[in-house]
């Protein structure tokens, strides 16, 4: 039961602790690639779909790319296992919803993964805690090269890498950062940030990327256009413009809260802490909201008796699939809410 | 500064502890009386109004009724002092809103009071914690007799005591009980109780009697008709029918909650406890709500580290006027909410 083991502990990057991770939870780069000689997935036959899987698995499993990888065949695991992978950000909901031969290879530390037959034949992803775009770029570039040594990518000398969706043609790169912006949300300044992001041609999404709504205090922002810009240009824009700007906005609002509205801030933070330590039944949405406030409280030094690692771990393991894996049995919504509340109280030393 | 001292501690009956006080917070009897030879207050002259005050004060202060009484001249104290008296249930809002010479005499332990020139010349009241109607009746009867020895009451051989409002004519008695019905409220069964009360010709009001809405988990119920029934009949109906029925309803719902929905019950109770121990700013309405849940939690043995005396005291001192008296200065709403939260956290050992 590989996935049962997986669910039991947070992977290294999920534990947090990267640079600036009080605001930028994680950075991620993904590359979209397809194999030459095979049609895009919308036109592929079942046999070809399976051939694509085998081709990629041979290349990754054969240690052709270094490190130890594990492959999960999405057709052979159940809904709960798939959901665990989504909750860990190892696969997208789209890969779950897709049909036929498909899966994911991921490095043991979960910082790198290759989704097979999602929207493109390959979706290569590297993710790390906090702001680490340069390291990520170096790693994903190397990984991409090693893969390419054994796989013939669909590439056009003029357009670049060919992808199923035109928005990815060219470099096939998407850079994204997962943000925790509780102060901008609390003061209502988040709207300004949304407008600024739009002006910079950035997409704003929810915690699980494409197709998920930006709710609560967590936002994923990513570049929208790939054609006509080099990978370095996209990354540089994030590194020198997008990320510093967001950090400045949120830091400014946090300082303003501490200075001008410390009571409102503490009220928010401590009430959430109180709710987590006392609730007997709690939904994942409410948990997320309170953990977000608690996280802000710890980052601003208002709460000192909980550490961030505990909060990061709770974010992960209170999600529905993880909760059921940890509990060892299927649970309905009502049961989950009770078990979730108990788990949180135990971890936070509640009543 | 008599009233400053008063505000600093809860009077004996406000500390609770009477029989059945987990459900019946207090019982009260009041008698409406007028002085013969003086018009009702709607027609009285300023001079007569003052004469009425003097007549009653002479009778009460002269120890004509036993015990030590203190008189507060409502014209000579400020709005905050008046509000303290309302919050302690020593006077009604109507007495505050009335005009001209008026006041209240009350016994040192606050269990007996005589409002002068409220709706009638005299409103005699005796109140005790829990269910104690017999003792109250005995006491108020004696008090009424002692007053009558020195005051000539307006009395008609056929109609009985004459009062400003026809609903009080006859015995002038109103029996009321203050109820804490959190379980009936939580399960929604309170509506049934309302209907039953209506069938029994009872009025349901809020925490501060006439003109206040029944909100939260606290309700005051009282008889509506006085004419054609003796005092003993009215009291007997409460003692043998109304009160036992309410206690049965609420007890039943509490037992059902403990047995069938312990999680929902504990969630409610502990979240409220958590909010009280963690909030940095809290309104009186929210305080009342959480204290109500906490009170239920203690009474049902779900919370063991707080005692009822603390909760009863918090009900009293977190009210706006008491809070300002305790703080020693006038506070606006925002300041009150912050001071209130701090006070509660200190008393409940919160964070």
Your description of this structure?
The structure is a homodimer of 351-residue chains. Chain A is of the alpha+beta class. The first copy, chain A, has two domains: 3-253, Glutamine synthetase/guanido kinase, catalytic domain (Creatine Kinase, Chain A, domain 2); 262-348, Four Helix Bundle (Hemerythrin (Met), subunit A), CATH 1.20.120. The first copy, chain A, has 13 helices and ten strands. The first copy, chain A, has an eight-stranded antiparallel beta sheet, covered by helices on one side. Chain A has a two-stranded antiparallel ribbon with strand order 6-7. In chain A, helix 8 crosses helix 9 and helix 9 packs across helix 10 (284-299). The longest helix of chain A has 30 residues, at 231-260. The relative contact order of chain A is 0.13. The interface between A and B is medium-sized, with 17 and 17 residues.
Give the low-confidence spans of chain A: none
> Which class of secondary structure composition applies to the elements of chain A?
alpha+beta
Shape verdict of chain A: globular
CATH class of the largest domain in chain A: Alpha Beta
Largest interface: A-B, 17 and 17 residues
Sequence of strands across the biggest β-sheet of chain A: 2-3-4-5-1-8-10-9
The CATH topology of the largest domain in chain A is Creatine Kinase, Chain A, domain 2
Main beta sheet of chain A: strand number and arrangement? Answer: 8 strands, antiparallel
Number of domains of chain A: 2
The appropriate CATH architecture of the largest domain in chain A is 2-Layer Sandwich
| Distance N to C terminus of chain A | 34 Å
What Rg of chain A, in angstroms, do the CA atoms define? 21 Å
- Rounded mean pLDDT of chain A is 91
Tell me how many strands of chain A there are. 10
Helix content of chain A: 40-55%
Number of helices of chain A: 13
Strand content of chain A: 15-25%
């Amino acid at each position: 039961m590989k996935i049962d083991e997986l669910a039991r502990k947070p992977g290294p990057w999920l534990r947090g602790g990267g640079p600036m991770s009080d605001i930028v939870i994680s950075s991620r780069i993904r590359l979209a690639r397809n194999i030459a000689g095979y049609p895009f997935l919308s036109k592929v036959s079942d046999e070809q779909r399976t051939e694509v899987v085998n081709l990629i698995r041979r290349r990754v499993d054969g240690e052709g790319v270094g490190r130890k990888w594990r492959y999960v065949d999405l057709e052979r695991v159940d809904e709960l296992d798939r959901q665990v992978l989504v909750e860990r950000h190892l696969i997208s909901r789209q890969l779950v919803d897709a049909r036929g031969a498909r899966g994911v290879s991921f490095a043991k530390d979960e910082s790198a993964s290759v989704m097979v037959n999602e929207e493109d034949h390959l979706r290569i992803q590297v993710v790390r805690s906090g702001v680490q775009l340069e390291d990520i770029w170096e790693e994903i570039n190397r990984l991409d090269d090693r893969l390419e040594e054994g796989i013939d990518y669909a590439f056009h000398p003029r357009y670049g890498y060919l992808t199923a969706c035109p928005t990815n043609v060219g470099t096939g790169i998407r850079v994204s950062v997962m943000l925790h912006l509780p102060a901008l949300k609390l003061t209502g300044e988040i709207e300004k940030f949304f407008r600024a992001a739009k002006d910079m041609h950035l997409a704003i999404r929810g915690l699980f990327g494409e197709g998920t709504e930006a709710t609560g205090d967590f936002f994923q922002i990513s570049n929208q256009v790939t054609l006509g810009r080099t990978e370095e240009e996209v990354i540089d824009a994030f590194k020198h413009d997008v990320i510093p700007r967001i950090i400045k906005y949120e830091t400014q609002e946090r300082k303003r809260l501490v200075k001008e509205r410390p009571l409102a801030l503490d009220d928010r933070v401590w009430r959430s802490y109180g709710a987590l330590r006392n609730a007997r039944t709690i939904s994942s949405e409410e948990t997320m909201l309170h953990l977000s406030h608690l996280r802000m409280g710890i980052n601003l030094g208002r709460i000192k008796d909980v550490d961030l690692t505990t909060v990061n771990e709770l974010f992960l393991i209170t999600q529905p699939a993880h909760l059921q894996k940890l509990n060892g049995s299927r649970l309905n919504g009502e049961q989950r809410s009770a078990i979730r509340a108990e788990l949180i109280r135990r971890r936070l030393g509640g009543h």
